[in-house]
Design brief:
This protein is an alpha+beta fold. It has nine helices and 21 strands. It folds into four domains: 43 residues, no CATH class; 89 residues, Thrombin, subunit H, CATH 2.40.10.10; 95 residues, Trypsin-like serine proteases (Thrombin, subunit H); 94 residues, PDZ domain (Pdz3 Domain).
């Protein structure tokens, strides 16, 4: 009897061991799902602290980039009329307010040293600039330099452990790519909106001197200026700059300065205190049938030169009125805006080949651009 129970117990033990091995390694042999086996369910159960990202969510991109997007508060002292204390002046014009003018905007931390990119119009003429980080830290900012031609400015703050955004490749984006806009619209606090790239290379908008905007339908509102336009990996593609609006609010058309342009401005301001742009001294015009007939040329595309400044780099290189510039270096140009941007991107003092059509002849001219003069401000 004892031998029988011993044999029975050994048999049961072997069968249970075999069942466990089969349940773990070959559950389909048992005709049941893995999740129905306690041992297998234990092996496959997700960690209690792991969170699954829903399909189509951009939470990781928003989390990665939003820490480096800051809010900017500016204030500017009001300059009252010297006669504001005169009783007759008060009678006709009322009491003059002494409250400072305040402004709102956004910025992007691009360096662990504390450099911040924002729009020039956000900080222009400001007496005090306060930066508020996403972790609620505050700091006074110093203006390192501004570039009104591109509507960009570089600020600096002195704080430790600063989050830094990753610079993306704005030259690789295409219409239809998904993007996120991050900023502080209307001062309500940091906000993330989503959309797509709806157009590229927008220019002739009358916003900046050098325009090459990324157009997006991600909601951008007042206060978003200077904030980040990022891709779905959280990398910076542009600096939000302007909106098209009849009401003051978003109408689905926003414009951002490409990060490629912003990077050049950032490096120029930090290194030289200004952005050094190329200049050749010509009066360009978009090619039209009327101008083509006037100058007796048969070119179908390019930029026609109607005037050349005496002793300017273009004149010294042999460019003449009536010439049509079709290429700067390796880049084709089809309109005045493209020519202006291409020449501005050239390094002053370094010769570059220009592709030119002169009547029916194609020629190449070596042009050594000079330093673009600063724009003259109108007299007050």
């Amino acid at each position: 009897m004892k031998r029988f129970w011993l044999l029975f117990s050994q048999t049961v033990t072997v069968l249970l061991a075999a069942y466990f091995v089969v349940a773990v390694l070959k559950p389909d042999w048992l005709g049941s799902r893995m999740s129905q086996t306690g041992a297998v369910a234990l092996l496959e159960a997700p960690a209690a602290n792991s969170v699954e990202v829903p399909p189509g969510s951009f939470r990781l991109a928003a989390k990665k980039s939003s820490a480096a997007v800051v809010s900017i508060n500016t204030s500017k002292a009001v300059k009252n009329d010297p006669r504001s204390n005169d009783p007759w002046f008060k009678f006709f014009f009322g009491e003059q307010s002494n409250e400072p003018q305040v402004g709102l905007g956004s910025g992007v931390i691009v360096s662990a040293s504390g450099y911040i990119l924002t729009n020039n119009h956000v900080v222009e003429n400001a007496d005090e600039i306060e930066v508020i980080l996403n972790d609620s830290r505050h700091a006074r900012a110093k203006v390192i330099g501004t570039d009104p031609d591109s509507d960009l400015a570089v600020l600096k703050i002195d704080l430790e452990r600063l989050p830094v955004i990753v610079l993306g490749n704005s030259d690789a984006i295409q219409v239809g790519d998904q993007v996120l806009a991050i900023g502080n619209p209307f001062g309500v606090g940091q906000t993330v909106t989503g959309g797509i790239v709806s157009a590229l290379g927008r220019n002739q908008l009358g916003i900046n001197t050098f325009e090459n905007f990324i157009q997006t339908d991600a909601a951008i509102n007042p206060g978003n200026s200077g904030g980040a336009l990022v891709d779905t990996n959280g990398n910076l593609l542009g600096i939000n700059s302007a909106i098209y609006s009849r009401s003051g609010g978003s109408m689905g058309i926003g414009f951002a300065i490409p990060v490629a342009t912003a990077k050049l401005v950032l490096e120029g301001i930090i290194k030289d205190g200004q952005v050094k742009r190329g200049w050749i001294g010509v009066e360009p015009n978009d090619l039209s049938p009327e101008l083509a007939e006037t100058f007796d040329i048969k070119a179908q595309s390019g930029v026609i030169i109607t005037g050349v400044l005496q002793n300017a780099p273009a004149a010294q290189a042999g460019i003449k009125p009536g010439d049509v510039i079709v290429r700067v270096g390796t880049k084709s140009v089809a309109n005045v805006s493209e020519l202006l941007s291409s020449v501005a991107a050239l390094k002053p003092g370094t010769a570059v080949k220009f592709g030119v059509l002169r009547r029916d002849e194609k020629i190449e001219l070596n042009v050594t651009p000079g330093l673009r003069p600063k724009p003259r401000r109108p007299a007050p």
